[in-house]
Amino acid sequence: MLQLEHVNKIYGERHALNDINIAFPEHKTTVIVGPSGSGKSTLLRSLNLLERPESGLYHFDDLNIDFSKTVPEKEILQIRRQTGMVFQNFNLFPHLSVLRNVTEAPIHVLKQSPAAATSTAKGLLAQVGLAEKADQFPTALSGGQQQRVAIARALAMKPKYMFFDEPTSALDPELEAEVLRVLLKLAQEHNSMIVVTHNMEFARGVADQIIFLEDGEILYSGDPQTFFTEP
Ligand code: ADP
Ligand code: ADP
Fold it and tell me: Where in this chain does the record put each ABC transporter domain (predicted)?
């Protein structure tokens, strides 16, 4: 379980996160929605410790972090290991093949053998529909294909939670659909996921829990049915 209590993040005058209290259950998909600038990305990046809030508590299983104190590097690494992040702009390694993009971190960070990492990577590439692209380089792929490689790469680290920060906002609609299908499948397989998206139809279809942010505050958190049927 992953949980935030009374979390505040301030940029200058701007209260980007204002007293955030929320839990992200395991094996469920939480979707974060809200207007541009409402704090969605800051919230996700705080969970990955890419941002450091000024105050509040963060619980990740047995790890308990007090943001008002210095966070030990060891705990940051532990949390990064267990949270796979997929960004808006794919961020693949351009000089590595698709297969090596997926095997790089398992080999060098998790110390898997190249044979084991390759076998896992091939399975993951098949899962995202890209088995035949393993030897290509990222520049030969469409944006949607690149994003699916990024998802396979994140999954290869076997993270406990998967975070997606507007994973389709750089894509044309037809390419967006193929990425959303992969996300929907991962959700149906009961992965633990947190997704920031502007696509309300997708949010409605995939979410177990919806969070609506505005001006750094949670105005709604709960089941999607209530959120989408309220007047
Ligand atoms: P969203 O993801 O919902 O668009 P963000 O989390 O990116 O919102 O931003 C929330 C608020 O914090 C915005 O007002 C934004 O301008 C501000 N903000 C985000 N990052 C920074 C930063 N590095 N420095 C200053 N202000 C920032
Ligand atoms: P920093 O932001 O402190 O420079 P890095 O971005 O290098 O740290 O790494 C952040 C975390 O991501 C580390 O905890 C590490 O476990 C993990 N990591 C390092 N290299 C990779 C990689 N190639 N792919 C995925 N995760 C990685």
Answer: 2-231
Cβ 54 vs Cβ 67: under 8 Å: yes
ipTM confidence score = 0.71
User: H/E element holding 21?
Assistant: strand 14-24
- DSSP annotation of 83 reads E
Q: Tell the residue nearest (CA) to atom 16 of ligand 2.
A: 81
Centre of ligand 2 from the C-alpha of residue 221, in Å: 31
Q: In one letter, which amino acid is 184?
A: L
Give the pTM. Answer: 0.88
pLDDT in tens, 145-166: 999 999 999 999 999 999 999 9
Determine whether the shortest distance from the Cβ of 81 to ligand 2 is under 6 A: yes
Length of the chain: 231
Which numbered ligand comes closest to the C-alpha of 33?
Answer: 1
